[in-house]
Specification:
mainly alpha
Length: 122
């Protein structure tokens, strides 16, 4: 779905807050809790995002925090180019590799690409 055509980012983040809050009868969940405890940004930053004609998330650290909660939907809402589904799948596989093995994985891919003739010898 192309969110940025149908929904402003301020409306989208407000809707996500409402969904997160749920039916909190008797135990209201605040925007501060959503911002600081759930997303990991300050209350001030969140209020700026929720405000009509307010700021949009632009710092990579903020976008990453939103991505960690909402996935690629964030990129569409913010008007970034949609990412190929296969690249998303590769990212998920990459994320599952232990940190000390990621360089080994990269070398395997580079070797395979050279064997296919898609990458020149270094």
């Amino acid at each position: 779905m192309n969110y940025n055509v149908y929904m402003e980012s301020s409306d989208w983040i407000t809707q996500k807050y409402i969904e997160w809050r749920g039916d909190a009868i008797g135990r209201e969940k605040t925007i501060t809790e959503y911002a600081e405890d759930y997303i990991g940004v300050s209350q001030e930053v969140m209020y700026g995002w929720m405000k009509k004609d307010g700021s949009k998330p632009r710092k990579s650290e903020h976008i990453k925090k939103l991505f960690d909660k909402y996935g690629y939907e964030v990129y569409e809402v913010l008007g970034f180019n949609s990412v190929d589904r296969r690249l998303r799948e590769l990212q998920a596989e990459y994320d599952a590799i232990p940190e000390d093995k990621k360089d080994d994985m990269l070398e395997v891919i580079r070797r395979w690409m050279r064997e296919q003739g898609w990458k020149k010898e270094e």
